[in-house]
Every structure is written in C-alpha cells, then in structure tokens.
Amino acid sequence: MRFTLLLLFVTVFMLFSSVDESRAQIADYNTMIGVVGGTNIGGTVKQFISYNGAVDVLVYRRWKGWVAAALYEHHLDIREFRGLEWYFGGGAHYGVWKDGKGEPPWVYKIDQDYNVFGIDAITGVEYNINKSNFFVGLYWKPAYNFTDFTKFWEDEVAFTLRYSL
After folding, report:
1. Global pTM?
2. Are 48 and 42 in contact (CB under 8 A)?
3. pLDDT by residue (tens digit) across 80-131?
4. Organism's domain of life (predicted)?
5. What is the CA radius of gyration of the chain?
C-alpha cells in the first residue's frame, strides 16, 4: 500500500515538473491553489499540464479522517458565458477514516481505523470572477473503494474557491 502511495506521488510530481510552457502565453494561469467545502473540507492544488489538461490534487477531511485524491481534468470553455468552463476527468484516492465511535452508521468496528483506496470520476464547472485571479467552482466526484467499504460513493459534492498564481 505504501509503495502505491509513493508511486502516485512520484507520478504527480513528474506531471507537475513537465508543465507545458505554452499555456502561460495563451491563458491567464497555470497553477491554482484553493479550498474546497461541501461534504468534505480541505485544500486543492491544480496544475495545468497542457492547454486543456490539468492535474488536481485534493486533500480533505472526511469521516473523522482524511483523503487525498489525484485527478486528471479536461477543461472546456462554455462559449456563451465568458469566464465559465466545465471539466471532467478521473483519478485515484487514498485515505484513512478514523474510528467512528458508532458514526457513521455503517461502521462495524468502532475501535478501528479504515484505509480506503479507490478510483474517482469528477465533473464540475469553474468561473473566473471578473477576469481576476479568483475562481469559484462546483464539482461532483463519485468514487469507488477497492478496500474497506467497497461500494460506489456518489455523495461527494463541494464548492471551490481558488487563486491562480
């Protein structure tokens, strides 16, 4: 499991280090940092690796633990609304859900931590506020866990507030 995490982080690092420099001349931003809030609360770093492609790393609190997700997102403009774009993509997540003390109701061993690993899909919209460095967004990120609580989790929805560097 630790080897899988190491491999995931090395892959993300390599993607960050091979950013397409032409995007800086075409678009207003390459890297964005921000916060997410909804069914989860945490942070995000998004790095564009091509004109339409970005790697988004989310780290957030969930079920008295934490989850980290690395996602590839393909962005497309919505031409009718200047500054608005939508995206879709997928990736993987890993996390630790802390002992639940009986919460949430599906926990069957209340004195144990749970390691979760799985795949994610994501779709969302993002809006540039008045051509500034601030972006607001909304995403839906369903996931499937391969370990502990293996099932389809479709409840993850969050707002984002990002700042482009």
Report:
1. 0.74
2. no
3. 888 899 999 999 999 887 755 445 555 555 566 778 899 999 999 999 998 8
4. Bacteria
5. 17
Supply the pLDDT for residue 89: 97
Average pLDDT, integer, range 20-43 = 71
Tell me which residue of 18, 19, 62 sits closest to 155, measured CA to CA: 62
CATH architecture designation of domain 30-164: Beta Barrel (2.40)
- CA distances, 133 to each of 44, 65, 162 (Å): 15, 31, 8
Task: Parse the chain into domains and list their residue ranges.
Answer: 30-164
Q: Which residues pair with 73 in a beta bridge?
A: 54, 89
Nearest CA to 36 out of 67, 5, 77, 1 is that of 67
Strand partners, 47: 31, 55
Task: Please state the separation of Cα 124 from the chain's center in Å.
Answer: 11
Neighbours of 55 (CB within 10 A): 20
Nearest to 53 by CA among 76, 79, 75: 75
Q: Which residue has the tokens 């031409």?
A: 79
User: Minimal CA–CA distance to 133: which of 6, 13, 9, 29?
Assistant: 29
What is each CA distance from 8 to 95, 107, 111, 121, in whole angstroms? 13, 28, 29, 17
